Amino acid sequence: MEEPVAGGALLDAVRVRLAETGAEPTPARVAAALRSQGRLLGDSAVLRVVEALRSELVGTGPLEPLLADPAVTDVLVTSPEEVWVDRGGGLERTRVRFTDAAAVRRLAQRLATSAGRRLDDARPWVDARLPDGTRLHAVLPPVAVGCTALSLRVVRPRAFGLAELMAAGTVPPGGDRLLRAMLDARLSFLVSGGTGSGKSTLLSSLLGLVGPQERIVLAEDSSELRPDHPHVVRLEARPANQEGVGRVGLRDLVRQALRMRPDRLVVGEVRGSEVTDLLIALNTGHEGGCCTLHANAAADVPARLEALAATAGLDRAALHSQLAAALDVIVHLVRDRAGCRRIAEIHVLERDGEGLVATVPAARWSADGFVAQRGRQRLERLCARGGVRG
Ligand SMILES: Nc1ncnc2c1ncn2[C@@H]1O[C@H](COP(=O)(O)OP(=O)(O)O)[C@@H](O)[C@H]1O
Ligand SMILES: [Mg+2]
Questions:
Q1: Higher pLDDT pick, 378 / 27
Q2: What's the pLDDT score for residue 390?
Q3: Is residue 235 pLDDT above 70, yes or no?
Q4: Is 327 helix (H, G, I), strand (E, B) or coil?
Q5: What is the pLDDT of residue 309?
Q6: Ligand 2 centre from 200 Cα, in Å?
Q7: Whose CA is nearest to atom 16 of ligand 1?
Q8: Domain extent at residue 104
Q9: Is the peptide bond before 142 cis (omega within 30 degrees of 0)?
Q10: Does 76 lie in the same domain as 45?
Q11: Is 293 found in the same domain as 350?
Q12: Which residues form ligand 1's pocket by a CB distance below 6 Å?
């Protein structure tokens, strides 16, 4: 006969009991705690309670099997009955369930604690990196209506090699030659695309092409780039502590990185005033640097950078003059309807009569290889001469 399974209320009672004594949920202790609740359960039911409680205390609890799947990139919890994953082909709902909304909250809080951060009513959201590199985002109710909203983004420690990106169709046949030429010529480049279009992944792979004698210094809001390269220094921003001090922003990191003798200055994702520091660096002897930027089209990049530079007080004309001399190439990624990520276009930059920078397509993705566009000659000239400006 199937033994009764301990319900949410009973689990809670056991939890409270164990929390009072600060004890680990061993079978003997759980059985004792159950007895104290006037419940006698058989061995297997006790063990199930032990398992349920253990998985709350260690790891990611019920999400563990999802995160263990190497294909899973994102795990999203919207309610105790709604757990979603992305295995690379868009979101899918899973069968994983939490006992109740309180269990989701407890997991989020425990994960935040393991990242050395606080998550409570006074600070109802957290954006942090777990010790294994997984990125955690959580918002507690009532800000998240109904249930704690939990998002985990898995960082796979291994970078995709260029060959794998070609096999996946991200880089078209023969496209690796162009990318290698860009890297060899130490062109400064920006990888653009929408959220999840594979910008960071491509940037990481491209950094694997950097010569082994070069020193790469990474500045990131949340460390995720793992280039396959022998000489990488990784810097990560951090929020203010509970007293509101000690914040280290991306801008601080870029400034420090410049003093660390980088051959390649890399800003994981430009999303604020640090853009001005990066452009200045690229203009003052730090060519070969690179970054990613959220933009829906390569042609939108100058306007996006303008908006970011404005937050640092840099006006339009100044931004465009910096940009023209700082950046050589834009590599734009898209994620098509089937969920495949690919390099849609490669653009170069051109200044018009008024000194404003516009992007010019140089190559377009096709199943047979990159198709040359108007800016192709300029791109080839840049590759041949090595990051020549103007
Ligand atoms: N070319 C690709 N083919 C298959 N999966 C990819 C590819 N590029 C990225 N991914 C996966 O998609 C997810 C999002 O990629 P990421 O590089 O973080 O995107 P972005 O930086 O644009 O937000 C990652 O988990 C990554 O493993
Ligand atoms: Mg990214």
A1: 378
A2: 44
A3: yes
A4: coil
A5: 96
A6: 4
A7: 198
A8: 59-155
A9: yes
A10: no
A11: yes
A12: 73, 88, 156, 165, 168, 170, 193, 195-201, 292, 341
